[in-house]
Amino acid sequence: MRAPGSARPGQLRRDSADPRRDSTRSPAPARDSPRRSNGRARIKLNFCCGDRRGRGAGGFSRFPRRCPGWWALLWVQLHVWRALAQDDVAPYFKTEPTLPQTHLEGNRLILTCLAEGSWPLEFKWLHNDMEITEFSREYKYVIPSLKKSDGGFYQCVVRNRMGALLQRKSEVQVAYMGNFQGENQWEAVPEGQAAVLNVPHIPSYPKPQVTWFRDGHKIIPSSRM
């Protein structure tokens, strides 16, 4: 005879210790409802809503009608990429230099690089194809007091995350005038003959205009002079 509750030969005994009969065990945590979950959970459901039995080559579902959320996600991603591409604008110049500009020696000169594009924009300046500044947010180049050596060609380089652009050359000419070189001139000629007075050399730019004076009075050009 078997004792009550004993197991048959070859059969395991189940008692209250069996977890399948233990009514006091804690229930398995319920999954979050898709309506209360975040967007990531819903995206996962969208990708898993295809028919597993209907998968073709490459693992894609043959029945996209059963998974409309997948197409909606793809549509949103395409619009986001398009918006990002439209927001990024390569740098471009609003104005380009045309004619040379002449400034007096000792004056202050401010060169500006008017450019637009996606920020942040960074600027760098070149003088006669040599770098004179590093890339920075400053779009102006200031020369407090012009010297003759400051003359030449200036260029601006602007860049952002979309690329870099080199501006056309802008010529800067420095106007200056030196002192008379040489001593006083003395000319002795016989009466009735022409006297030729040479203009003394004066280092200057541009070429100076010469006016003659006699005994402190301006000489009016005529057939005799």
Question: How would you characterize the overall build of this protein?
Answer:
It is built from two helices and 13 strands, in the order ααβββββββββββββ. It is an alpha+beta fold. It has a domain at about 95-175: Immunoglobulins (Immunoglobulin-like, Sandwich), CATH 2.60.40.10. The longest helix has 20 residues, at about 70-85. The strands form four sheets. Strands 2, 5, 6, 8, 9, 10 and 11 form a seven-stranded mixed sheet that branches. Strands 1-4 form a two-stranded antiparallel ribbon. A two-stranded antiparallel sheet has the order 3-7. Residues about 15-20 and about 30-65 have low confidence and may be disordered. The chain starts with about 40 loop residues before the first helix and ends in a 7-residue tail after the last strand. About 15% of the residues lie in helices and about 25% in strands.
Would you kindly provide a brief summary of this structure?
InterPro entries: Cell_Adh-Cytoskel_Orgn, Ig-like_dom, Ig-like_dom_sf, Ig-like_fold, Ig_sub, Ig_sub2. This protein has helices at 39-47, 68-87, and strands at residues 92-93, 101-104, 109-112, 115-116, 122-127, 130-131, 140-143, 152-160, 163-166, 170-177, 204-205, 213-214, 217-218.
List the helices and strands and how they pair.
Elements lengths: L38 H9 L20 H20 L4 E2 L7 E4 L4 E4 L2 E2 L5 E6 L2 E2 L8 E4 L8 E9 L2 E4 L3 E8 L26 E2 L7 E2 L2 E2 L7
Parallel strand pairs: 2-10
Antiparallel strand pairs: 1-4, 3-7, 5-6, 5-8, 8-9, 8-10, 10-11, 12-13
Helix pairs in contact: 1-2
InterPro entries: Cell_Adh-Cytoskel_Orgn, Ig-like_dom, Ig-like_dom_sf, Ig-like_fold, Ig_sub, Ig_sub2
GO biological process, one term: homophilic cell adhesion via plasma membrane adhesion molecules
Protein name: Protein sidekick-1-like
